[in-house]
Write a structure and sequence with these properties.
Helix content of chain B: 55-70%
Distance between the termini of chain A: 32 Å
CATH class of chain A: Mainly Beta
Number of strands of chain A: 3
CATH topology of chain A: SH3 type barrels
Strand content of chain A: 25-35%
Largest sheet of chain B: 7 strands, mixed
Number of helices of chain A: 2
CATH architecture of chain A: Roll
Shape of chain A: globular
Oligomer: heterodimer
Shape of chain B: elongated
Number of helices of chain B: 30
Radius of gyration of chain B: 29 Å
């Protein structure tokens, strides 16, 4: 359910995610496929990312 | 690449038995794509807002004429996908499958094509004639993104019409294409996305297993795809349609591939990537211009809160400075002459007829009407903030606080609306995706101090506390909000066992608001309020009037007074006499009635001397307790009615009433004794 909501907003395996705002606590904003998406910290913690090159 | 003569697509012919409306057009699109703007542009005031049958999801339908032809336009709920995550998504796809619109206009944003084509991929799979309205060309140009509509059209196999709905650009072209599709001059022939290669075989296997068992009017290929995606609604439907043995084998295949929805979603995005490769040129990723710069402040965990508090303050200031004079004017120039006129006309009628019509009917209508200017201003500011894209930021910065109650940022939006009026706040909880979170928000929404309650405070507080009235007022607001957070946290712990739903929300790009969109939103919200609140307030106003008149025409000895005297022992705990108790009871139809009732009971009109009389009759402790109880008491009749409508349950509605009753009596008693103790 959460997975499929994330997928419909563009968060699918292998996609490039840019961290737009993260103050260490509380919700954060990522940019994925040109869309800014706000995520609760709990939801964000379940997404496994690999550090990529800085664009 | 697939083609239009895909054998799988042909196995489920479109239903011929159903009556198909040849002028029916559906409008689909994700949120923040300008779908409502386009809908409003096409239909204007020629639209009807209701509910989808059996659902608390808004249904908007309208009519428009183009070149002498009449079209019926249905605005489907804005959804990101068509997988059964929410009632909205099920409604959208069921409508397309069962009503079979002659064309589906999919609104996408040129500034955000990659994500917005996701829904197009889903729509095309429904075997519906899809036309792509490539909206927000102006925003795309502003962000430096160029889209070539012709290349996109060739890639998708669907008509693509570039447009800017907010400036009414491209509408004629869109309608021309709609006509062509309806007349069969153009047949959309989509190049459908494919499932990622590693799952294609599984999909074919499922297709073979369910062949011939798919209930009409669902296309078999679509059902197979949704099964693979783990769509709960389709899964349930098929389980009922298939024989247990067949279902067991289908289920076995699905269980072995329970991560398949990611393959399906990835497949769609791969398809989108192919579609866009040649059609879109974009600047370096990460450039957001205006939105980026504004969000550095508006979405900041500290500054964002200050900005929100500032905006909230400004909204109130604007609402009351503009609204109060309007209210007075309405009262003086419309209602008072109307009541006078009615009394004159009814001179010969029996006293009770006159009283019922003048005091009950006109009084009841009056309290709704008087309230409207404040509400309209509040709605307008709210709609403006919504249309600009700010409200998503407000939800984002409030997320931390909402977590105390097991809710997340989205629940803050209806609560914000509650500062204007609790009725639209409870209706506004529809934006919350999970039912427990929505229910909890409905239960706590009445604790948001609405403008009607603030009107009572604004009358009583200065009478008793003079210069300190402003601090008392702020204190009462703060108390209400503390009560809100405390009861939210408690309810979440006790009833919802501390569960919390996921916070996933798009932050749209800021953009210039559209006056038409805002105007229509204000119009619709006000109309809904008048319809919902108006009827409830009217009925109860009449009832209260009858109780205050019977048996002998004297309020002081009426049934209402007797009821107040009966309840006086409870009132005593809070420092009330029977008159304050009656005033509190009559605040049920509409909060501001409390003042009018006190006026009648003390024989002073609120304009002359009532404030002084009240100050002489009650102690400060009683007044303070009365204000506290007014803030926390059972919400008004209209709010209770809407709570019933939105929860569709008397149980939850009664729970809400009981909780607030208990809370207000307890708080009133506490405050009264505390205040009396320090000698107020």
């Amino acid at each position: 359910m959460v997975n499929s909501r994330l997928a419909s907003l563009g968060l699918t395996p292998g996609v490039q995610v840019n961290m737009t705002q993260n103050f260490g606590r509380g919700p954060l904003i990522v940019t994925v496929r040109g869309t800014r998406v706000a995520l609760g910290r709990g939801e964000a913690a379940k997404i496994i990312v690999e550090r990529g090159s800085h664009e | 690449m697939s083609d239009c003569h895909d054998p799988l697509m042909q196995t489920a012919p479109r239903l011929a038995v159903m009556e198909v409306d040849a002028s029916l057009i559906a409008l689909a699109g994700q949120p923040n794509m300008g779908k409502s703007t386009l809908f409003n542009l096409l239909t204007g005031l020629n639209q009807h807002v209701g509910n989808w049958p059996g659902k608390t999801v808004e249904r908007r339908e309208g009519f428009f004429d183009h070149k002498g032809r009449s079209f019926r336009l249905v605005d489907l709920p804005g959804t990101y996908s068509l997988t059964a995550n929410s009632p909205e998504e099920v409604i959208a796809r069921e409508f397309i499958l069962c009503e079979q619109p002659a064309a589906v206009v999919a609104v996408v944003s040129a500034a955000n094509l990659e994500r917005s084509l996701y829904l197009v991929a889903e729509l095309a799979a429904l075997d519906a004639p899809v036309i792509v309205a490539l909206n927000m060309m102006d925003v795309a140009a502003q962000e430096g993104i160029q889209v070539d509509a012709h290349i996109l059209e060739a890639a998708l196999g669907l008509p693509v019409i570039p447009m800017t709905a907010s400036k009414a650009i491209g509408v004629r072209e869109l309608l021309g294409v709609v006509e062509d599709v309806l007349d069969g001059k153009r047949v959309p022939c989509p190049h459908l996305p494919e499932v990622r290669a590693d799952h294609r075989e599984v999909l074919e296997k499922i297709g073979r297993l369910i062949e011939g068992h798919v209930p009409e009017p669902y296309p078999q290929s679509w059902i197979a795809l949704k099964l693979l995606e783990g769509d709960a609604e389709v899964t349930g439907r098929l389980q009922a349609a298939l024989s247990p043995e067949t279902w067991e084998s289908v289920h076995g295949v699905l269980r072995a591939h329970d991560d398949a929805f990611l393959a399906v979603a990835s497949g769609r995005y791969e398809w989108i990537g192919r579609m866009l490769r040649a059609a879109v040129t974009r600047p370096r990723i990460g450039q957001f211009g205006l939105t980026e710069r504004l969000d550095r402040w508006a979405a900041h965990p500290v500054w964002g809160l200050f900005i929100m508090a500032g905006i909230l303050g400004l909204v109130f200031w604007l609402t009351f400075t503009l609204g109060s004079p309007l209210q007075e004017w309405l009262d003086r120039s419309i209602l008072a002459p109307l009541a006078g006129l009615a009394s004159d006309v009814l001179m010969g009628a029996p006293v009770w007829v006159r009283g019922m019509l003048v005091d009950g009917l006109i009084g009841g209508v009056g309290s709704v009407l008087i309230f409207l200017p404040i509400l309209v201003i509040f709605f307008a500011v709210f709609a403006l903030l919504e249309d600009v894209g700010y409200m998503a930021r407000a939800a984002y910065v409030m997320d931390n606080l909402m977590h105390l109650m097991g809710l997340h940022g989205k629940s803050f939006l209806p609560l914000f609306l509650g500062f204007g009026c609790n009725v639209p706040a409870i209706m506004g909880t529809r934006v919350i995706d999970s039912w427990p979170a929505r229910l909890l928000t409905i239960l706590i929404a009445p604790l948001v101090p609405c403008t009607a309650r603030m009107a009572v405070v604004a009358f009583i507080a200065p009478a008793f506390f003079g210069e300190n009235a402003i601090w008392i007022s702020w204190g009462l607001v703060l108390l209400s909000l503390l009560a809100l957070v405390a009861s939210g946290a408690l309810l979440n712990r006790v009833i919802f066992k501390g569960q919390r739903s996921a916070f996933i929300m798009e932050m749209p790009l800021y953009h210039i608001p559209n006056a038409r969109t805002i105007g229509l939103l204000v119009w619709q919200r006000s109309l809904a309020f008048v319809k919902k609140a108006g009827t409830a307030i009217l009925v109860i106003s009449l009832l209260v009037w009858v109780l205050s008149y019977l048996p002998n025409g004297e309020l002081n000895t009426s049934f209402l007074a007797r009821f107040g005297q009966f309840l006086e022992p409870v009132g005593r705990w809070m420092g009330f006499d029977w008159r304050l108790t009656v005033a509190l009871i009559t605040s049920f139809p509409a909060k501001e009635n409390a003042i009018a009732t006190l006026g009648v009971l003390f024989g002073n009109s609120p304009d002359s001397g009532l404030a002084e009389t009240l100050a002489a009759s009650f102690s400060m402790a009683s007044a303070l307790s009365f204000l506290v109880v007014t803030m926390l008491f059972i919400p008004c009749m209209a709010t209770v009615a809407v709570t019933k409508q939105e929860t569709n349950s008397w149980g939850w509605t009664l729970l809400s009433v009981f909780l607030l009753l208990a809370l207000s009596v307890a708080a009133g008693t506490g405050v009264y004794h505390l205040a009396a103790l320090i000698g107020l």
